[in-house]
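Lecture notes, continued. The same structure-token format from the folding unit now serves as the input rather than the output. Read the line below as a description of shape only.
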């Protein structure tokens, strides 16, 4: 009896560990339509602008550290063209790091992405816009988690409605109006359709990403 209990506990522990393994999908997630955009081993489905060396893969993570560059998803999921979706990303910032997750954007060879929105990743950088806000549109002023800890960002877009969460906490609930005012240089921060991109902001910023998964919504 004791041996049977121990075996049951060992199996339960193994199952829980397998379900929680980074860069994998649980049976429930697969049934719900989630798909991985990063397998933990390669960024072959992604393409970097400006300075490709800013991005590397180590121990199941995308490491972002180096000069300005943006890593665009150009893989086969939804033909890298998303409109209504839910995106989940695990991220970890390091002191004074600045990064971001773009959506409804498109590939460009250099510069800051002109199309789509950037969800800010920043807990201690000098920029006052913090993690989870829509940079330059709906900025968020509070630190969501300390540097050096994993946090989960969720971005959900349906029509003209954008919701972002960090570790389940609501950060932004925004509905884009028909002709939204935009600051100079941000005129194309608009909802449309497109791909995702990770931002490498500057040589002093280091951010890690993993568990990048998306569910396409009807």
């Amino acid at each position: 009896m004791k041996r049977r209990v121990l075996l049951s506990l060992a199996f339960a522990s193994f199952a829980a560990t397998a379900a929680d393994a980074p860069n994998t999908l649980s049976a429930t997630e697969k049934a719900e339509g989630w798909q991985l955009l990063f397998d933990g081993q390669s960024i072959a489905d992604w393409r970097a602008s400006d300075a490709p060396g800013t991005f590397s893969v180590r121990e199941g993570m995308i490491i972002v550290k180096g000069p300005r560059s943006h890593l665009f998803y150009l893989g086969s999921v939804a033909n890298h063209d998303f409109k209504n979706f839910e995106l989940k990303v695990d991220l970890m910032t390091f002191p004074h790091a600045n990064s971001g997750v773009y959506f409804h954007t498109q590939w460009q060879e250099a510069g800051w992405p002109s199309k789509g929105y950037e969800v800010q990743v920043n807990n201690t950088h000098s920029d006052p816009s913090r993690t989870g806000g829509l940079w330059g549109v709906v900025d968020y002023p509070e630190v969501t988690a300390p540097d050096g800890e994993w946090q989960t960002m969720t971005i959900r877009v349906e029509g003209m409605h954008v919701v972002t969460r960090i570790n389940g906490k609501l950060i932004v609930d925004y509905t884009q109006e028909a002709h939204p005012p935009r600051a100079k240089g941000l005129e194309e921060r608009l909802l449309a359709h497109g791909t995702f991109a990770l931002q490498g902001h500057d040589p002093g910023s280091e951010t890690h990403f993993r568990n990048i998964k998306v569910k396409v919504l009807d």
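Point for the exam: Residues 2-19 form the longest helix (18 residues).
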